[in-house]
Every structure is written in structure tokens, then in C-alpha cells.
Amino acid sequence: MYYINERVFLMLIKRTPDRYEKLAILGGMATDDILYPPEQRGGRKGPYPQPKKNPSFGVYRASLPNGKFINLMRVMFTDFCKMDCAYCPNSHWVPRKRYAFKVDELAQVFMEAQQRGMVSGLFLSSGIAGDGSKTTERLVKVVDSIRNRHGFKGYIHLKVMPGADFEQVEAAHNLGTRLSVNMETLTTDHMRKLSNMKDFENDILAPMRWIDQLNEASTGRAVGQATQLVVGAADETDRDVFSRMDQLYSEWNLKRIYYAPFRPVRYTPLEEHPPTPMSRSHRLYQFDWLKRVYRFANDDLDLAFSEDGYLPLDQDPKTSIAVENLDAFPVDINGASREQLLRTPGVGPKSTERIISARQRHTVDTWRDLQAMGVVRKRAWPFIAFSGYRPPAAKQLRMDLFGADAKDKSRSISDEAEGQAAAPCGEPRSCTGCPMFGMPGHPGHSSFAA
Fold first, then answer.
1. Distances (CA, A) of 404 to 124, 304, 399, 412
2. pLDDT > 90: percent of the chain
3. pLDDT at 36 over 70
């Protein structure tokens, strides 16, 4: 039997974790709870669980707009945070051990992974240690080392911390491929429900405006900006989300908005607040897709909301809009315009182009042809017609789809949320992390149907 003296034992248990141990923790904190299947969301997990799909700590397979995939290292610089955000497992409310990289240490970890072919890009986030400007400065130094010392030219998504000054935002813009400031909520009034320390106008909106101005001036490397909203934490409605979404896309030219469902975290002021059902976040992604990709008009989008301002959880918003416009359906597959096809449930952008291309050569007249082009029959059947097939008339169609009590069939958000357990402290989503880029529920994922 071997013995170890008390002094050596204390030195061992108090030693500083090495960079790989930090990556195991801070890479886990940068992932998102969407990675876990629904049956696990309410259960107890360890403070730093790793998603099974990831090949290694901090490595995340993300989808690109062109349908291809890229392995990113998603990591936090530190999970120290002075902020009091009532929804966040990294806030100062939560008593747990914290970790932090050094600048050169994190740069070296990334370059080692990149040189081994494990990753092709970086997603870098952080808690706010000190203040937003100093933390952003540290993140900029990491990226500067990766770019200029190590010569990396690839994709880097860099988080700009709330409260960063213009000089740091400009420096980040010169180095990053994509920048983002996490909005987390919609307005100053909503922010007051979540944090007494964040100034919504000066800490969050100001850096976002600066990024937009720098993009308009076409300086630096950044190609756009994104942001994240924590859905349900401030009791906002989906119509409230739509109002902010419209402004961000039309006025500030955002490339993407992410919708992270709120999960209560132990020790925080919102510990007893009901969790937001994942289905609500999924509906917002679908609605966002209609706005950003399909270019639905705002008047049409408004038809998707129920009277209380929420999207129905049991029906996708594209179908909700179509049901409110049954007189415009069915559309003739062989004569419909591109716009009419795009507004048809079950028909997406790719299948629209395939239909238009195919009907230049021959008449499209079978479900087999349509399904081969990507049309989802179970969604499209009430809304399209072709030679040999026509759905029921509008009045009968409404009965076939919904039955006599169709008026109020959607489940309420409170019903959906009831019974879900609060997440433990250490829920693996950072208040400055990125949500479900490329994961199930995200429009770019293969499971996201038209």
C-alpha cells in the first residue's frame, strides 16, 4: 500500500486545472440544452454534461446556409460572471466553482484541435468578468492571436459582451467572421424583469447599432450579426417577439435570431418560474423562417397568432396562415406562381424550384413525383391540386382538418409547460452562449420541414 503525506495531498487537490480540463468544462457550458432529447429536459443532470453527438469536448457540428456542415469549437473564455441575470446558470446567484482560460492558452487549444482536423472554425463566448469592455478585449486578444500569430483564416463567430465600448466592437469587427450581442429579451421593460444590472439601451442596443454601422460601412471581416432571445423568461408574447424580430431584420439587417427556451435554474430569482416548452421555441423558428426566407408579408404573418398573441403549439404557423386563407387554395401545381407555391404548406424553397423546373418539361400529375421533389404530402394534401386530384372545398376542408370544434384546438403554453421540472444549476447554456445553430428545431437542420 502506498501513502501520501497531507501536504502533497492538499497540493494535488488544489492544483490549477490544465487547459484540457478547462475545455472539458467550458466547452460543455457553451453547448445548448436543445442537444438533449425532450424526455431528458426535466431530469437532473450533472453540472457540465456533454452532448453525445459531439465527437470531443467543445466540438459542435453546425449547419451552414448552403446546407453543408462545419465542425466548430464552441467554448467560453470564462464562466465567471458578475451579472444578475435571473435566467442564467452563470449569473452571480449560482454558487459553484468557476473556470477561466488565459488568452494564449485558449488560442493554443483551438489551434491544436484545428491542426488535428477536429474543427474548422471557432465560436467564442464568455461570461462577463469585470465589465463588458474588458471581457470583450480579452476575447479580441484570443482571436487576434489565432488570426495573426497562428495564421488561421477560417470561420470565427465572436461574441461581443453587453457594455462593450466602440473601440472593442470595432476591433472585434476587424477579426471576426460573424459577431453577435445577445439581446436576451425584447425591451427595457422586459429587461427590468430579468436584470437590475444590464442597461438595455446602452449595454445591448448600442453595441448592436455599432456592428450594423460597421457592416454598412463595409469595413473589417464581419459579414453580419446575430442575436439570441431567451423565450418566456420575461412573460413576453410571441407577437411581442415578432415586433422585435421585424425591426431587427428590416432595420439592422441581422442574419439570424436564435430563440432559446427559458429553463429555470436553481438559486436564481426565476427558480419557480414555469419553463418554456421546447415546442414554443420550435414554432418561433418556423415563424422566423417564413419572415426571413419565405418573405411573407407582415399582414399574412399576423394571421398565425391566436387572440392572446401566441403561436398555436399544435400547428405550424405556415399551416395556420393557410387555414385563414382557405379561399386562396387549392393551388394548381402546374400553374401556380413561385410565390403561391412558397405559401403552400408542405412545399419549401427547394421543392418549389424543382416543381417549376419539372413542369417546363412535363405535367406534374402524381403524388410520387411531388414527394420525389420534396413535397410533404401529409401537410400539402389539403392545399394543392393537379390532374386527377383535388381536395375538398374550403368549408368541408376545414371540417376534415379540424372537426367541428376547430376554433379552439391549440394547446396553451401554460398547459404545455405544466409538469416540467426546473433545471439544476449548471444548465449547459450560457447567457452569452449561442442557441441551436444547426441543431434539431433550427430551420437549417434536415428535420425542419417546410
1. 52, 20, 6, 19
2. 68
3. no
Cβ contacts of 67 within 8 Å, gap of 6 or more: 444
Q: Which CATH superfamily is domain 18-274 in?
A: Aldolase class I (3.20.20.70)
CB 267 within 8 A of CB 425: yes
Angle at CA of residue 303, ends 297 and 305, nearest 5°: 120
Segments of 49-197 assigned E as strands: 59-63, 69-76, 121-125, 155-159, 178-180
Q: HSE, CB side, 13 Å, CA atoms: give it for residue 52.
A: 3
CA-atom Rg of the chain in angstroms: 24
Q: Which residues pair with 407 in a beta bridge?
A: none
CA torsion through residues 163, 165, 166, 171, sign:
negative
pLDDT given for residue 281 in this prediction: 97
Q: Which strands, in side-by-side order, build the sheet including 225-231?
A: 59-63, 69-76, 121-125, 155-159, 178-180, 225-231, 256-261
pLDDT at 172: 96
Strand bridging mode 225-231 / 121-125: unpaired
Domain boundaries defined on the chain: 18-274
Q: What average pLDDT does the chain have?
A: 83
